[in-house]
Amino acid sequence: MSTTDDGDALPGIPNVGKADLDAMVEEERPDPRDELADVEADTDLGIAMAEDAQRVARGELTGDEYWEKYDEAAADEFGAAYRETPNPAVDAGDQTVSTETAESLSCTVGSMDAVSTEAAQVEGDGSEGGIGAGDEKWGMVIDLQKCVGCDSCTVACKSENRTPPGVSYNVVMEEEHGEFPNVTRTNVPRPCMQCDNPPCVQVCPVSATYKMDDGVVNIDYDRCIGCRYCNIACPYGARYFDFGGDYDDEVDGAGEVTSPEYGVDRGPREDGESPIGNIRKCSFCTHRLERGEEPACVETCIGDARNMGDLDDPDSDVAKMADSSRAFQLKEDEGTDPNVYYLK
């Protein structure tokens, strides 16, 4: 991946190509049929919708064609949950479905702006200044030469967001190369990519997943029905289902600690209460950004490998790094245009 002027790999840093990194990501993704095996929603429908949502991101299918194709099936499968929610693709200034098509569908015509406003999940308005000043497009740049694979980001994220067993918003993918004593290791941290063209938003039949103006893709737990179609639509394997587990066996009273996600106090974990039974994922620690703080993973990174900032500000460090010759995105061919960049 990184080399000296002579073309040799730098000590401890393998000369790994982007295709190899993309393959590491693909290995993290769940098998679609296994993921949907215990879900009441139709498995074949979910797989078809997920695959076509990825085609929309790649520009191979339009949003109009997508919802014209799946409107009847989604209405039959999800009933009122689908019919009573605003169509997920009608957005002022950024439409993936035309108003004409939306009005022909079985679901209510509306916009994702309305969905995000109704959710009322994010506390504050960013008016206090600092990193959450207001009009940013949030992006993260991760320097692979600085990542030491310590997993401090994983631990910090679990601690900050109180995620249950089986749910880790930040994982570090690892792969060893060579034989002792000539061994190198690839460490690739993988949060949610916060895609500009997110298949997870496209596929959601109830508009529970939505994209904010600041570039962050969030989830309305109260709207989510747990169909997991978005899990298999995500090209990065960055979504998880909350089965209701907790760490009470390891830490007494762990299930009583409230998660700060989205600035909503949901109280102790109880069966049948959100976020149990919902999809969960990294939100760039939206609740911290709104307080003018960095995400927990960025603040905790001991190698200073993670950088957070405004991609729309050409003078910001993050924008400059994302525009450098070292920068790349994972699985670029998917057309998702992630707001997470890596430095090789």
From TrEMBL:
Residues 138-167, 215-244 form the 4Fe-4S ferredoxin-type domain. Pfam families: Fer4_11 (PF13247), Ferredoxin_N (PF16947). GO terms for molecular function: 4 iron, 4 sulfur cluster binding; metal ion binding; oxidoreductase activity. Keywords: 4Fe-4S, Iron, Iron-sulfur, Metal-binding. InterPro entries: 4Fe4S_Fe-S-bd (IPR017896), 4Fe4S_Fe_S_CS (IPR017900), ET_IronSulfur_Cluster-Binding (IPR050954), Ferredoxin_N (IPR031604). PROSITE patterns: 4FE4S_FER_1 (PS00198), 4FE4S_FER_2 (PS51379). Residues 26-35 have a biased composition (Basic and acidic residues). Residues 1-35 are annotated as: Disordered. This is Fe-S-cluster-containing dehydrogenase component.
